[in-house]
Amino acid sequence: MPELPEVAGLAGFLEEHLRGSRVQKVQIVSFAVLKTADPPYTALEGSTVAGVRRFGKFICIDTDGPSLVFHLARAGWVRFTDSPTDTQLRLGKSHIAARITFDGPHGRHGIDLTEAGTKKSLAVYVVRDPQDVPGIAALGPDPFSAAFDADALAELLGSSSQQIKGLLRSQSVIAGIGNAYSDEILHAARISPFAIAKSLDRGTVQVLYDAIHSILGTALAEAAGKPPSELKDVKRSHMRVHARTGEACPVCGDTVREVSFADTALQYCPTCQTHGKILADRRTSKFLK
Fold this sequence. Notes:
The longest helix has 22 residues. The chain has 8 helices and 10 strands. The protein is elongated.
């Protein structure tokens, strides 16, 4: 799933290539992906792109008419082309959920919103205001907003009995962090993924805050300027524990372990994060704190 750094990279790339372009044609290939009806998606056609923004994991293409907002979910992605075709796509016949073509000062461009797999969660909204999208309206603070400092994080954690892994992934608490970067942040902060949020002392909260900015900041810098076709590889290349089950921790050399859930998994280093304890799989036993 693309998270804050990749979504920011996508938004920056689209901003650079689409600003000032006219929306030529919008094709919704899977009507399940379209979550709004008013204004109609055809209202985008003929409008001019005013800019591209990120809200958490949402990308918003603003125009002088309505805004096009999309969320890539777990298996969605953006395919960008400098030579889009005018072929009329058939409903439900490919992994393409939507196609938008643009004509502007830098020539013609096109983006396909694609989704792999059978579980379809990619979402597209055409709205007058991005805050009309429920998921955007419910977002917590962005990790790089001025209001999000260590004190704000301490306040968020201090009232929560949730495990820290789940809290970091909660978009209504902090916007943009998902499964992969929460693994990386907790590893960098040397915190167990199952530590209870309100149990963290002020010093540990500061370490966590610094890890959020360090991990995401590095990933943002690496994603900047990359085309969509390269962003997935950039993400994978700098992961230390996420998706590294069975490999050696690059910090201490211990074996990276995994806890599996029904439809996802987390990775961690016992030596770095749990004082050597192995966390049990929730599917078969209780967590070890």
